[in-house]
Specification:
The protein is of the alpha/beta class. It has eleven helices and twelve strands. It folds into two domains: about 270 residues, Rossmann fold, CATH 3.40.50; about 50 residues. Helix 8 crosses helix 9.
Amino acid sequence: MAEYGLTEAKFHTKQKHAFLDAYLNIWIENVGKKSPSVPSLEIFDLYASYGRCYCDENKEEWDGSALISAKCLKNYPRPKTLWLNSYSEDNEEKEHQHKSLQYYLSQLELPESFEVIISGEPILDNINRALRHCDPKFPSNWILDPYSPAQLPWKIVENIALHEGTYQTSDGTAVTRRPELFINLLTSYLARFSAIDDQKHIVDEALGLPREEWEDILSGYKENGIDLQTAILEIYSHRLAEIYGKYPIAWKVVGTEGNIVYTFLLITESNAGYHVMRLKGKHDMMEWFNHDWTQKAKELKAKRSIQRKASKSSKVALFLSDFEENSE
């Protein structure tokens, strides 16, 4: 085992990290530098792993959510807490994750102006401690990026969303504040599980609805020609809107083959943050997606196509070696 690990990831994973980075950058540029009264900020990443990602197909590395969050707080005027929960049922792997996280964080030379807490608990245990630590009167961002849909039941999302506090504006108006959520909704898994009897309980828990209810809703969407992934996204968005009073901003993560893999959601009560992300944040995302990610995805797809053809040849090794040399 290498001294410091990396999370093995598909290239499409980079999109959700770019989305997260785009929004946290709004906190730095629009709140931290332009707001007359800068509030403190906490970030809770409940599914942190090694801290950095690695795509074997193109040998590329990039920062994961833990390091993106750490860099945000480093550049924010009033950082308060970075909460990282990195869990694995394998104790050796969990220790390796924590050692790697600590190493990568040390390379950032973080100031002592905010607290970094690294834990390693199952999500249902960690969420209660995290909520007790979070002061709901001040802003908090929660990154909910599970490895499988079974790891993010709706009750966790709801418990965080309802962890609300009240603060007063300069004119004495009382305002309710709720946490801002980044959610990786694993729509492709949920769509598949919705048609498998012994997996439907996962959909029950992920949507927080009785089976008869979500099956009836999905049936109605299907009759109107809406695909399962979009229908599940609609159900989930409605559930969030019932709490936040608005629908989330969604980014459909596309695989290198053009398929929708999952959807990354942002929900915030802040009208200003919501507006800026819809205008500037999504614009920056599209610029990056069109000019950076898409080009590299096309290269990976072309390479994969050549590899499939080469696998039928007796000169596979030579052909792949030639391709890699010519693609550098």
